[in-house]
Amino acid sequence: MRIRRVLSTAVLLAGVAAAPALLGAAASPAVADSSPSASPSGDDSAPTEAGTSFRTATEIEQGLQATASGSTGDYLYWSFPADAGQRPTVKATVKLPEASKRASAETWQIDVYDGLRRRQACQYGAQTRTAATDAASVTLSCTLRTVRAWSETWANDPLPGTYYVRLTATGLGAADLGLPVSTEVRVDSEDIGGSAAVDGSLAEPLVPGIAITAGKSDEESDSATAALSSLEPDDGWTSGWWSDRWVWTATGGVLAALAGIGGYALTRGTGRPSRVPPGA
User: Fold this and answer.
1) Among candidates 142, 183, 181, 178, which has minimal Cα distance to 163?
2) Buried b or exposed e, range 250-268, using 16+ CB within 10 angstroms
3) What is the pTM of this model?
4) Model confidence pLDDT, tens digit, residues 83-103
5) How far apart are the C-alpha atoms of 112 and 142, rounded to whole Å?
6) Where are the strands (E) in the chain, listed by range?
């Protein structure tokens, strides 16, 4: 009997040791692929112009490369949707005028603002770069912090909604103003998953016009022409209580239960010795 108990306990402990691998394999599909699906830069749906203010910003989808032509000294604006759990990276390439037409070096800067038009800090990336007078192009990038589903009102955390990209040249001399340039802008996101999940969510994403269309019937929403944004993530706005953090929480609970059963099996002993009478 004792040998049989020892064998059963060994099998149970082996199951506890193997549980993390099995549960991890089962939970892996819940973790989104961190490599966004990229669309070809020549996609017909990619915009070929940029806005000149927040209100006229050109909407672009993540994974598409937008192009635009402009002049040095212009402010070029684009907007894109970002949902909770995403870490957007904005990349911009500016093809500069011919070196013979430029009088000095040019400094280009890319800024990203959230749906409340609060400037968001770049977690990393070359947000500002100076191009030499003989440079043919300059490339900028800005990786934002992970978008949170909810935040305190006093915090400057990135929240779900529309984000604005502003590209411009700074510190230009009078001789360099108005020279033609062409730009390419692309936004990709890495899905961070449950590690960035928080206990809370916004009632509505920070999208222009959401206050007009929220809470109205379909007929009233269709008649409301003040909605300024029409893009949203491919799967819709998913900010809410669910994240893959629940998978790992359940995994921890199962492992704790198995460990408790194993500990009880090891410490409960062999019962009453056979030499002791029942009434003793």
Assistant:
1) 142
2) ebeeeeeebeeebeeeeee
3) 0.70
4) 988 999 999 999 998 888 888
5) 8
6) 58-59, 65-71, 76-82, 86-95, 106-113, 119-120, 122-124, 128-131, 137-144, 161-170, 180-191
As a whole number of angstroms, the distance between CA 18 and CA 254 comes to: 12
State the virtual CA torsion across 24, 29, 34, 39 in degrees, nearest 10.
160
- Choose among 100, 124, 119, 97: nearest CA to 108: 97
Which two tokens mark 85?
């759990």
For residue range 58-88, list pLDDT tens digits in order. Answer: 999 999 999 999 999 999 999 999 998 899 9
Angle at 77 between CA 75 and CA 81, to 5 degrees: 160
Residue whose pair of structure tokens reads 């990276």 in the numeric block? 89
The residue whose two tokens read 């819940």 is 30
Give the C-alpha distances (Å, rounded to integers) separating 73 from 158, 181, 260. Answer: 28, 10, 68
